[in-house]
């Protein structure tokens, strides 16, 4: 079981420094933050859309109809972004961002950060994310937190990254909660605090983040930040497995095969190994091959093994 637990913890440590609400426990309250550094609006100018980069007229008609029926205001910029019309998306989002629309400022930052429709400019992207983050936009808070975590477009500042993830997580951003948990497990930007990390992972897991479910299972399996509980480990591995997380499918299969934290069932274990194997998981492929060779949980099939 320690092998399964180690897998969950390895994910935490690996993902902690790299790169959504439903019913459940209330989110942990974010800590009060100091005033963010003042950022001047980047001096971006509207590009001239090219002839073959127009917003689909069907999208426009549908969005206008939605507005007439009392729905939310149409978001042409995001509609263009979803269709891959990045130049038009940038022009439309920039126009609204300059009027103080936080979501549009976030989209401008995203397009600049990824170089979609415009030349990539990470520093300018950070500026737009900051503007939106100051308005409480959780996507901007998360994106800017990633930039400070990795030192991309801004000078690396782990404490500021943790602050931004805390605010985004408090607004219900599951991935920000998970990232903050990773930082707390490693003592990055904040003092190491496995118990608080487990609480943040639990919140993220209850928001449906499968990586958080997998990581939380690892904590329960190992007894890190929580009381060791194989039943809870199995429960969260199962949740992540059902969401298509192939590593969780392997770990849950192992628990089923050995009857740890859940009733022993070699046939169901084999099905999970097969599902993970079909997704290209090498550990699952090896385990499935052994079961096929030995006829455990499946009919023996040396040829397939």
TrEMBL record:
Keywords on record: Signal
Pfam families: Sel1
Residues covered by region (Disordered): 23-50
Superkingdom in the source lineage: Bacteria
Coiled-coil segments on the chain, per record: none
Gene Ontology BP terms: ERAD pathway
Extent of the signal sequence: 1-21
UniProt key word Signal: yes
Stored InterPro entries: Sel1-like, Sel1_AlgK, TPR-like_helical_dom_sf
Name of protein: Sel1 repeat family protein
Organism: Propylenella binzhouense
